[in-house]
Design goal:
The chain is α+β, with helices and mostly antiparallel strands. The chain is built from nine helices and 18 strands. It has three domains: about 80 residues, Beta Barrel (OB fold (Dihydrolipoamide Acetyltransferase, E2P)), CATH 2.40.50.100; about 60 residues, no CATH class; about 210 residues, Chloramphenicol acetyltransferase-like domain (Chloramphenicol Acetyltransferase), CATH 3.30.559.10. Strands 9, 12, 13, 14, 15, 16, 17 and 18 form an eight-stranded mixed beta sheet that branches. A four-stranded antiparallel beta sheet has the order 1-8-6-3, with no helix packed on it. A four-stranded antiparallel beta sheet has the order 5-4-2-7, with no helix packed on it.
């Protein structure tokens, strides 16, 4: 008896996915709810669990193929070996062959190397035929089939590796041997290579959405610089007590999230979206936080960030960051978002023009902190400075609103007391 593995429901508006990787191969044992495949959707990678205990059977689709929700992608055999897996041929009742029993490759020339020695009865017919055709010693090949048995693919991979390996030069006979000049090895340091890798579904979606943002929105970026002295001092002063009480480190993102909420409350258009011929304003802030995952940039969402404490923001961002690195983000983690913060400073970026995350209308870009000379009270002093960038959709947000919103964020960071008195 066998069970079908189908593509699960992937979330609202997601109707198909791509087989990213098979985590279980035919012939391998699987347990109930054990991941057997990874699916790539437009937003996240999703693992497909096994519906039963059993043996992994046939892969109905290959890696890289696109499948619809509800489609059958694999078969799980309850007890029988996987369909299509190599079967062990039954031994015939006959006298055991002598220890020197060998099988030579088919049509081997008289000058061929010594025949390969192995116990032919232990191999299935197709594997035995492949071994003979490619002159492969089974003892040198690691089997990937059930109980470590050789499969035809194992032999073919070994044959391919053998063809790619450099062949030793034949030794000349004593009668004809003549001194030969030694040829210099071909230079390899300057070798030029090309590699073509199929874009993942997530990367294709990122490319399509970013290009769509450029083609649709009237993008503009305004800049400002920010003195980080006060925030750094507050963080250094309270970080140990904060972590001891809340179990999470105090970072800079919570300060910027709070400062952004102040600005968005004063300038609702920066937190708004265009839908057709209408403008949608939100009385809440769902903050999208751009983080780098194994498959590219992803933007999970912190819900109602305007209602969270500093500790709540740090915990939420930390949890989403870990899930992004582990590849365990869900569709619910990615849905929505009214405003985005992207921190290119963690990679050393000094300045950038971030692209908005449609259908949002603005994104705040943070950059690295570095000591720079600035003028304070007529004196040149060195302060830890950061460039801030606000990219916005000029169709909805006027320049005055964008510049003033960014100035509000700057002032709140330079004087964190404003965060407490809502100023």
């Amino acid at each position: 008896m066998s069970s079908e593995v189908k593509v699960p429901t992937l979330g609202e508006s997601v109707s198909e996915a791509t087989i990213g990787q098979w985590l279980k191969q035919p012939g391998e044992a699987v347990k109930l709810d054990e991941p057997i495949a990874s699916l790539e959707t437009d937003k996240v990678a999703v693992e497909v669990p096994s519906p039963v205990n059993g043996i992994m059977g046939q892969h109905v689709v290959k890696e890289g193929e696109t499948v619809a929700v509800g489609a059958v992608i694999a078969i799980i055999e309850d007890t029988a070996p996987a369909a299509g897996a190599e079967q062990v041929a039954p031994r015939e009742e006959k006298a055991a062959p002598p220890a020197s029993d060998t099988i030579a490759p088919k049509d081997a020339p008289a000058t061929a190397a010594a025949p390969v020695a192995f116990d032919a009865a232990a191999l299935s017919p197709s594997v035995r035929r492949a071994v003979l055709e490619h002159a492969i010693d089974p003892a040198t090949v690691k089997g990937t089939g059930r109980d470590g048995r050789l499969t035809k693919d194992d032999v073919l991979h070994a044959a391919e590796a053998k063809r790619d390996a450099p062949s030793p030069a034949p030794a000349p006979s004593l009668a004809t041997a003549q001194p030969q000049p030694v040829a210099a090895p071909a230079p390899t340091s300057g070798a030029r290579r090309e590699e073509r890798v199929r874009m993942t579904r997530l990367r294709q979606t990122i490319a399509r959405r970013l290009k769509s943002a450029q083609d649709t929105a009237a993008l503009l970026t305004t800049f400002n610089d920010c003195d980080m002295s006060a925030v750094i001092a507050a963080r250094d002063r309270y970080k140990e007590v904060f972590e001891k009480k809340h179990g999470v480190k105090l970072g800079f993102m919570s300060f910027f999230a709070k400062a952004a909420c102040l600005a968005l409350k004063d300038f609702p258009a920066v937190n708004g979206q265009i839908e057709g011929e209408e403008i949608v304003y939100f009385d809440y802030v769902d903050l999208s936080v751009a983080v780098s995952g194994p498959n590219g940039l992803v933007v999970p969402v912190v819900r109602d960030v305007d209602r969270l404490s500093f500790a709540g923001i740090e915990k939420a961002i930390g949890d989403l960051g870990r899930k992004a690195r582990d590849g365990s983000l869900t569709m619910a983690d990615m849905a929505g978002g009214t405003f985005t913060i992207s921190n290119g400073g963690i990679f050393g970026g000094l300045m950038s023009t971030p692209i908005i995350n449609p259908p949002q209308s603005a994104v705040l870009g943070l950059h690295r902190i570095e000591d720079r000379p600035v003028v304070r009270d007529g004196q040149i002093v060195v302060r830890p400075m950061m460039y801030l960038a606000l990219s916005y959709d000029h169709r909805l947000i006027d320049g005055r609103e964008a510049v003033t919103a960014l100035k509000t964020i700057k002032e709140a960071i330079e004087d964190p007391t404003r965060l407490l008195i809502d100023l």
